[in-house]
Amino acid sequence: MDALVRTAEHSGTTASLLDEALNTVMDLTRATGAVVLLSEAGKGLAVASVKGQMTQVDRSAFNAGQTLARACLESHSVLHSDATHDEPRIHGPACHRAKLRSLIATPLRYGDDVLGVLEVCSSVTHAFDTIDAQAVSLLGNTMGGALGRQMALDDNARLLARLEEALHVTQATARRYKDAALYDALTGLPNRAFFESQLKEACRTHEGHSNRFAVMFIDLDGFKPINDTHGHATGDAVLREVGSVLQECVRDTDLVGRLGGDEFVLLLSPLRDAQNDVQLIAAAIKQSLEKPRVIDGITFEIRGSIGWVVHDGHDAQSMLAAADAAMYRNKKAGRS
C-alpha cells in the first residue's frame, strides 16, 4: 500500500516517477529487470525507462513481440509467463539472448486509455507467483494514473503537438474514407481501384530503383465449399478474418487490399532484401492463416495459394498480372 501511495502522490518529473516506480516493482517482486514502454500513435512501443536485465534487450524487440509487452498492449490485460522458452505469445530470440526466463506484463491505464506497458523479468523460471502478478497489476494501474497526470503537467507542449498531429492524421484518414468507392464494403480493405492507384504511385516513386517493393497475390484454397456447406454469411466471416490476419502479418507501411471474391493483394514497401523479405512474409502469412480458428462456431484452417513479384521496372498492371500468374502456378502445382 505504501508503494501505491508513493506512486500515486509522486510530485517529481516523469523521469523520476518512472525511475522510482521501477525500483519499487523490482523490490516488491524480486525481479531482475523492469521496463516501462509507452505507446506512440502509429509507432508502436517506445522505451521510456529501463533497469537491470531488461537493458540487455534491444529496444525494437519489445515492439516486435519478442517479450510479452506487445501482446499485453494488444489484449489490455495482465500477462504472466513462467517459462519464456516455451511461450507461444513470444516471437523472436530476445528472451533467450537476455536470459529472461519469467515475465509479467501489465497495461498502464489512464481512464479509458492504455498509455503503455510495465514489464518485469527474472533470470529464473517460475520466479513469480499470483501475488507478484497482482502486485505488478496494481502498481501498473497506479502508475498509469500518475503517469497520465504527470505527462499533462510537465509536458503540455509535447502533448499539444501530439494532439495536433493526431488531428492531422484523423483529418487525412477522414479524407481517405470520404470516397467509400475506394474501400471494400465487406472487409473494409482497399478495393482494386484504390490498390491499383497506390501501386501506380509506388511504381512512379521507385522508377529507376528496383527491388524496393513487391506485390503479393493470395487466393484462398477451397473457399467455394465453405459457401456451399456453411452458407454465404459464414463465407463472408471467413473473408473478414482473412483480411484481419493479413493486416496483422504486415507493417504499417504495407497495404492490404481485396480485389474481389477470395482474392487478396499486398503492396509490400519498403524492402531491404526484397526476395528474402517477401519469402519471410509469405511464410508468416501461411502460418497465421493455417492456425485453427473458430468462425461462426466452426473451426477452420484457412489455406491459400500465394504468388509475388518484386519490382524490377514493371508498371502497375504488369506487376499485378505477374503476381497473379505466380500465384496460379503455385496453386496449379499444389504449392500453397
Question: What does this molecule look like?
Answer:
This protein is of the alpha+beta class and 336 residues long. The chain has 2 domains: 2-156, Beta-Lactamase; 178-332, Alpha-Beta Plaits (2-Layer Sandwich). 48% of the residues lie in helices and 21% in strands. It has helices at residues 2-8, 14-29, 59-63, 69-75, 94-98, 130-154, 156-178, 192-205, 223-230, 232-249, 274-289, 316-332; strands spanning 33-40, 44-52, 79-81, 102-110, 113-122, 214-220, 255-260, 263-268, 293-295, 298-300, 304-310. The strands form 3 sheets. The protein has a 5-stranded antiparallel sheet, sandwiched between helices. It has a 4-stranded antiparallel sheet with strand order 7-8-6-11, with helices on both faces. The protein has a two-stranded antiparallel sheet with strand order 9-10. Helix 1 (2-8) packs parallel to helix 6 (130-154), helix 9 (223-230) packs antiparallel against helix 10 and helix 10 (232-249) packs antiparallel against helix 11 (274-289). The longest helix is centred in the middle third of the chain and has 25 residues, at 130-154. The radius of gyration is 23 Å and the shape is globular. Its EC number is 2.7.7.65. One of its GO terms (molecular function) is diguanylate cyclase activity. Pfam families: GAF_2, GGDEF. Keywords: Nucleotidyltransferase, Transferase.
Tally of strands: 11
Number of helices: 12
Unreliable segments of 5+ consecutive residues: none
From the spread of the alpha carbons, the general shape counts as globular
Our Rg estimate from Cα atoms comes to 23 Å
CATH fold-level topology of the largest domain: Beta-Lactamase
Q: Please, how many domains?
A: 2
Roughly what is the average pLDDT, rounded to an integer? 88
How many angstroms separate the termini? Answer: 56 Å
* CATH homologous superfamily (4th level) name of the largest domain: GAF domain
Helix percent reads 40-55%
Q: Describe the biggest sheet?
A: 5 strands, antiparallel
The helix/strand order is HHEEHHEHEEHHHEHHEEHEEEH
Order of neighbouring strands in the sheet with most strands:
2-1-5-4-3
Can you name the CATH architecture of the largest domain?
A: 2-Layer Sandwich
Which range does the strand content fall in? 15-25%
Return the structural class: alpha+beta
CATH top-level class of the largest domain: Alpha Beta
